[in-house]
Amino acid sequence: MEIAKDVLSGARNATETMRDTLHRITQHDAELKCFRDVFQQGALDAAASLDKRRKTGQKLGRLAGVPFAVKDLYDVAGLVTLAGAASRRSEPPAQVDAALVRALKAEDAVLVGTLNMDEFAYGFSTENQHFGTTRNPHDLARIAGGSSGGSAAAVAAGLVPLALGSDTNGSVRVPASLCGVYGLKPTYGRLSLEGVMPFVPSLDHAGLFAGTVEDLRLAWDVLAGTETDGPVAAARLGTLQGWFRETATAEALAAVDGVAEALDAVRPALLPEAGRARSAAFCITAAEAGALHLDRLRRQASEYDIATRDRLIAGAMLPAQVLVQSQRFRRWFRNAASILFDEFDVLLAPATPCTAPEIGQNDITIGGKSIPVRANLGIFTQPLSFIGLPVITIPVFLPGALPLGVQLIGPPGGEAMLFQLAQQLEQMGLCGPQPIERYA
Questions:
Q1: Is this prediction's pTM over 0.85?
Q2: Nearest by Cα to 378 from 216, 224, 200
Q3: Which of 38, 293, 316, 382 is found 20 to 30 A from 254 (Cα to Cα)?
């Protein structure tokens, strides 16, 4: 990251960098509503400590001076982890930081705040009844996506270069697509969820957002304890057909096809029963989340967002057989994906079926059919997180259009191949965030 390189070399002062960051947040977040809390004094103190350590010749970490923020379901010591829910205000504060927060701080990144999200991560829009709607930096009349909307929008607007989120059914990839930034949902279980409030334990992934492939890669290496800098062969590329094209706008298909042509990924690939996988993911989400919240619902149902509450209650009432059958199908679907990866190294698909809808918009027309917006923003992401595949969402900007994401999908443990392809595409000028004049 450029900030870390400059701080490590002495070309940049960490304290001044942090003051600039906090000024930008103060200047722009009132309209964007990305942040839930901003740690002004704590961030300035941490930056001043870095400057002092550098001057005295002490070794600094790989992320020295880099501001970062976290979705409001990551524990931050001394702060109540709200997870976007007003009903948690009376809970005790966290005693220690979440594991990933600790890992970034250990490399001298500086935590500047917590970020807005859908209540309990149950949504794709970050239209939060309690803490406001996060707006899309490219068009303030549109949603940022969710449930990690505050994370994606904060990176897109340049408020922070790095943010942590989570992805259960698409909550990193959807907002990354709509806000035009890079988003990583790694292989299931690859990043620690210690200190992250669960939503659907068998589907939850930790994830992250950044403005460049290099920034995303460095943060991943820090968090995963790996190295993804060397060359990796990924010659067999395919573009997913069927389900992954049937409910997509012309813009979403154009974004995917442009990337496919640049990579010569012209071979069609079919992941069978992807629609059923999405339905099974819905069932597992409802059942696990409903069971997790049942006791709180009995005590505090009136304090939930109405949309969240009703879905959780419905999930808690699902027959056990529905969950059993969904889990059985998941095993079948995972095996089908494994067979497909015997033929391909990386697959391409849209991240969202459309660009960012307007705030409050209920429906969108695709292929002559009107479909609900909120439920269908994850139509192309849910089948993939259902079986824990690693995905990097790259931002594509078609002429005169809002951003759209393209998913680079690998087999379990295939993150290095995805980073290599994303880097290649960025160098070709086919992807990467575009500066937004309002926040330049």
A1: yes
A2: 200
A3: 382
